[in-house]
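[job 0417] fold request received: HNH endonuclease
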Amino acid sequence: MRWSQKVKQRDGKCAICQTPKNLTAHHLYSKSRYPMFSEDLNNGITLCQKHHQEFHDQCGNQAGFGFAKWLLNQQRVSRSHKDKVFQRVCELQEKLEELQRKRWNHNKSSSFSQTKKRFVLLQTSVSENEFDTFQSLCQALSLTPQQALHRLVHDEGQAWLKKEKVRETLLSLA
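[job 0417] inference complete; emitting structure tokens
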């Protein structure tokens, strides 16, 4: 059985609208950019064709946390399902970081090469001074920049989940 069939069989319906029709398996981390996850079932989620297209129209090919952030904004998705997907994304991100550490021969230096630095500066609105400050903070905390960014996104997601729980509690009391 192919990966997409296994994902669709596991989920059985669209994660957004719950329809069992016109289903497609979506990679949380794209198979072309992250081939090591291409057959990992935790890297898949089932969407109907409409919502799969909607995600790509709104977010392009954002991986992992890009999908999780999009999912957090979907009103029809239960909080528990959002939590499960967010947990899967975090687990995949941890696997990715572990693979990167192994590939870099356990080099825990957080310094970026000039090529990587130029790429980040071109792809973001971060100034060179802001980037250097961020890199210095990473070194002081003994974190790679990837680990620091992962923690920031994870903390943002956890804060959102807590805010949602408070909101749901207040709504149930009203």
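[job 0417] notes: The beta strands are 23-27, 44-48. Residues 3-108+144-173 form one domain.
[job 0417] exit 0
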